[in-house]
TrEMBL record:
One of its GO terms (cellular component) is mitochondrial intermembrane space. It comes from Amphilophus citrinellus (Midas cichlid). One of its GO terms (biological process) is mitochondrial respiratory chain complex IV assembly. Residues 62-81 are annotated as: Disordered. Residues 70-81 have a biased composition (Polar residues). PANTHER family: CYTOCHROME C OXIDASE ASSEMBLY FACTOR 4 HOMOLOG, MITOCHONDRIAL (PTHR13639). Transmembrane segments: none annotated. This is Cytochrome c oxidase assembly factor 4 homolog. SUPFAM superfamilies: Cysteine alpha-hairpin motif.
């Protein structure tokens, strides 16, 4: 039987959450959390994996916010035009 975390599965390709996480660059950390949870059946045993995944996601979100902020004209720029 295939592992539930086999990344070659077709249904992962159709899962919008999997697609979103893969775009963040944090997918491997997400899988590490899932594998830990499958092994221990207790999220408390997986705090280091959860923390690392959370930090990766926060970094991605902060970079994305900065990118969007740079794309928007400031109020002084739009008032001048």
């Amino acid at each position: 039987m295939a592992s539930p975390h086999d990344r070659s599965r077709k249904d992962d390709e159709d899962d919008p959450v999997e697609q979103m996480i893969s775009r963040t660059g944090c997918a491997e950390l997400h899988y590490a959390v899932q594998e830990c949870m499958a092994e221990h059946q207790d999220w408390r045993a997986c705090q280091s994996q959860v923390r690392t995944f959370k930090e990766c996601m926060m970094s991605f979100q902060n970079a994305r916010k900065e990118q969007l902020r740079k794309q928007q004209p400031t109020s002084t720029e739009s008032a001048a035009s």
